[in-house]
Specification:
Length: 132
């Protein structure tokens, strides 16, 4: 049964299940596990803080979301299709678990950040092509 997103525990559930989907995904899984070799014990708590900040205004996330993706695309080109697919999994995950205003809001926020991130990553890709 879908529920409201109300607490940090809800955010943790959202993030944990999202990255389970990511890791099982044939296209995105290897980017995280093989190319970036993500340390999940570090990444997951960071993402709880990130999304809790977006949804509830907490200030625990002090990082910068964009730079790791600029570095990543230099190792393995991130395409607009990767971002579309990331977003499709994100939306699927929210719809499986949650309903209500915060569920709508988090999808909108993910969409808008992914759009900006994709634009900036495509600029990095174009710059690399220009330099090579
Ligand atoms: C093709 C899509 C994406 C891929 C492949 C991807 C991959 C990654 C990887 C490999 C990391 C680094 C993990 C580490 O530190 O080891 C990362 C960090 C992160 N990603 Fe993404 N990501 C994608 C899209 C997004 C989107 C759309 C958002 C936000 C809506 C996002 C938010 C973040 C944040 C907040 C971090 C942590 C940055 C920090 O170190 O402070 N990512 N991502």
């Amino acid at each position: 049964m879908p529920k409201l997103i109300e607490t940090r525990a809800d955010v943790e559930l959202m993030v944990n299940q999202f990255y389970q989907k990511i890791r099982q995904d044939a296209e995105l899984g290897p980017i995280f596990d093989e190319i970036a070799q993500v340390d999940w014990d570090v990444h997951l708590p960071k993402m709880y803080d990130f999304w809790e900040g977006i949804l509830f205004g907490t200030l625990n996330y002090a990082g910068r979301p964009m730079p790791p993706h600029f570095r990543l695309t230099q190792k393995h080109t991130l395409t607009p299709a990767h971002f579309d697919h990331w977003l499709a999994l994100f939306f699927e995950n929210i719809d499986e678990l949650f309903e209500g205003d915060k569920a709508q809001e988090v999808k909108y926020r993910a969409y808008s950040i992914a759009t900006i991130m994709n634009n900036r990553v495509q600029q990095v890709n174009a710059q690399m092509e220009f330099e090579n």
